[in-house]
Amino acid sequence: MASSKLVCHIDEHFCECAICLKPFLEPKLLPCLHRFCEKCLRPLFANLSEGDIFCCPVCREELAIPEGGLEALKYDFLVCELTKVIQWQKSVQNENQVRRCEGCTKEEESAGLCSKCGGFLCQNCFSFHQTFSTSMLKDHPPVIELKDVMSGKVKISMDTLSQFNAAPRCQNHPENILRLSCVTCKGRQICIACTYEDHVEHRAEAVRIVAGMQRNDLQKKLGELKLLITNWESNYQMLTTIKEKLTSAVEEVTERVRSITETKLEKLKEDRENDLLSTEKKINELRENGVLEKARLENEKNEKIREVERQYDELL
Predict the structure, then answer these.
(1) H or E element in which residue 294 lies
(2) How buried is 94 (Cβ within 10 angstroms: 0-12 exposed, 13-18 middle, 19+ buried)?
(3) Weakest mean pLDDT among 14-23, 110-119, 247-256, 303-312
(4) In a 3-state reduction of DSSP, which class is residue 90?
(5) Phi, psi for 37 (deg, rounded to 5)
(6) The whole model's pTM is what?
(7) Most-buried pick from 33, 35, 90, 148 (CB within 10 A)?
(8) In whole angstroms, how large is the CA radius of gyration of the chain?
(9) Can you tell me which residues the record assigns to a coiled coil (predicted)?
């Protein structure tokens, strides 16, 4: 099953509190998603009031103390179950640990497991379960042979563990079953006796009622989430279409600008070459005109010199 495969790949340190370095005991979840045992956080919250700042011991993210203080933080029930699964696996697969029968008073070494009986069974109790499984013990699920668990043939999954925790007991009142959920304490499971002690004047509901309410709330939120996903996908498709159109338009404008730029550059280049030719032609014309003008002036000068010489000869 998927749950068995998942648990097999979880490191046991994942279910250890970073403060006490022991398996989680009633872990509280911080907004940064780090979790710690409630008893470990209690001294840290002792001198803090609502609105004060508390830093996560792991990542140092700041948390404003909510109304209700430590009790207002949610319990991490998933990690609680994972911790139990890993502890069961370590207990069952530890060949050096002697497990005594919990089905009789002989306290002999265990040979199997029965979720209905709540734990380990010796060989006699195990055989009794197998023999009378269809009559006296028909309400008991099939027993699990301990050697199959130790060899890895059978995995202690979340589903298997839930059978062993079918009737969870109160830690403060072990003789009582946890039948109530304290709404004031964010869903903490309590027994009847707790309502007369630590949870006096707290609002408590039957676990099945709270579970039904939470199930309906989750289904409603799931529907809202699906609608958000549908809208997001629609918006994403629309944005993708717009992006493609904009990309096409940009490419078209870029091509037009490139074409116009090249045409303008060619025209400028042609005009420049024409201007250079025209300028060179004018320079040549001026140079030729200058030579002719020099020759004309030279002739006039020579002519005047000859005229003066002629007049001088006549006077003599």
Answers:
(1) helix 207-315
(2) exposed
(3) 110-119
(4) helix
(5) -60, 145
(6) 0.41
(7) 35
(8) 48
(9) 215-314
Pairwise pLDDT comparison (78 vs 281), residue with the higher score:
281
**164 vs 313: CA distance, rounded Å:** 154
What mean pLDDT, rounded, does the chain reach? 79
Q: CA-to-CA distance for 48 and 192, rounded, in angstroms?
A: 30
Residue 112 CA to residue 166 CA, distance in Å, equals 18
**Mean of the pLDDT values across residues 189-215?**
85
- Give the residue with greater pLDDT, 31 vs 145: 31
Cβ-proximal residues to 179 (8 Å cutoff; 6+ apart), any chain: 191, 192, 206, 207
Residues of the chain with pLDDT > 70, as a percent, come to 75
C-alpha of 207 from chain center: 31
DSSP bridge pairs for 36: 28
Of 43, 46, 50, nearest in space to 67 by CA = 50
- Rounded Cα distance between 210 and 167, Å, is 17
Distance CA 73, CA 44 (A): 14
CB 197, CB 185: distance < 8 Å: no
- pLDDT in the model for residue 33: 87
Q: Which of 163, 190, 203, 213 is nearest to 26 (CA)?
A: 190
Query: Lowest-confidence range among 7-11, 126-130, 279-283, 289-293?
Result: 7-11
Q: Degrees (nearest 5) of the Cα angle 209, 203, 83?
A: 65
The pair of structure tokens assigned to 278 is: 């025209």
Contacts of 75 (CB under 8 A, 6+ apart): 26, 27, 28, 29, 186, 187, 188
Nearest-angstrom CA–CA distance, 44 and 238: 50
Alpha carbon 58 to its chain centroid, in Å, reads 18
Alpha helix positions (H), 9-47: 38-45
**DSSP element (H, E) containing 135:** none
**Confidence band of 149 (pLDDT split at 50, 70, 90):** low
* Distance in angstroms (rounded) separating the CA atoms of residues 98 and 109: 7
- Which of 180 and 309 is assigned the larger pLDDT? 180
